Amino acid sequence: MRKIEPEILAQKIKEGDRFALSRAITLAESNRLDDLNLAHQVISLLPTSKTSKRIAITGIPGVGKSTFIESLGKYIVQQGEKVAILAIDPSSSLSKGSILGDKTRMEDLSREENAYIRPSASNGSLGGITSRTYEAILLCEAAGFENILIETVGVGQSETLVNEISDLFLFLQLPGSGDDLQGIKRGIMEMADLIFVNKSDSFQEKLVKDAKLDIVRSLQFLPTKASQWKRKSIIGSGLIGKGVPELWELVQDYFTFINENDYYRSNRENQQLKQAERYTIDLINQHYLKALKAHPIELNKHISAFEMAKDWLNNHSVEMTIK
């Protein structure tokens, strides 16, 4: 296989080469440390965007995320802007495989010159995203995609990870979902900046109005966000594009607001620090997994598994040098 030159790959990405962009993201998603190092060499040669919009989009299965995202993506392109969709598909816990069908679900958008869709497998990662979504964001921004839409696997309390790598958190809700979702809604609603009640054209008017009222009431009891932004909700339909222009206007208002109060800058700095912490943990894990393979833990029936682990670490704790 021909050696990949980081400088050449970085230059092609800056020129908007889709193949080069996809290749760099594939390197970043690799389980091999050499590939990840190469991906970060490429990233270090690329410009860092200070104006991009990183938008996380989540919702319960069946809420219509893909249809909504295609509608929003097409609207963004119509405004003369570029958009990248990072769509995460759940992986099988048995085969580790993933369908990666988002390009077929967003067929119209995938044909747009100013849109880029990258489906990735979650590979069992918590947080509703793949563990290398952060790198994919940086690469897409360097390729000129100023609007990054991150579609998560689904909702759950572990969705905090996607919140930590995005600027705006958009929660899709269904009319009539009722109190059965209260357990997960509380955590998600606290993170949400905007709530979009989707599929309003498929439900009775009363259910739609009740959903809106339920959200307005719920928002009153939530703590103020660090950005000081007051959460807002809107009713619409991704299928017919209803409410999408109004939603995008709210998105613009949000970014104007967080730029004016300097939250955009401080949040990006915080994202970088949190990512550095995750890299540290990843590198330590990889180091000790190699050590475990070379020196497996020996069974000792007289002590607990926890004590065996402590003994192994005490005997094999070595100074780390990461190249």
UniProtKB/TrEMBL annotation:
UniProt cross-references to Gene3D superfamilies, sorted A to Z: 1.20.5.170, P-loop containing nucleotide triphosphate hydrolases
Bilayer-crossing regions: none
Hydrolase in keyword set: yes
UniProt entry keywords in alphabetical sequence: Hydrolase
Alphabetical list of InterPro entries matching this protein: GTPase_ArgK (IPR005129), P-loop_NTPase (IPR027417)
EC number assigned by the record: 3.6.5.-
Highest taxon in the source lineage: Bacteria
Pfam families xref list: MeaB (PF03308)
Record flagged with keyword Hydrolase: yes
Single annotated GO MF: hydrolase activity
Stored SUPFAM superfamilies: P-loop containing nucleoside triphosphate hydrolases (SSF52540)
Family: Belongs to the SIMIBI class G3E GTPase family. ArgK/MeaB subfamily.
Protein name: Methylmalonyl Co-A mutase-associated GTPase MeaB
Organism: Empedobacter falsenii
Gene: meaB
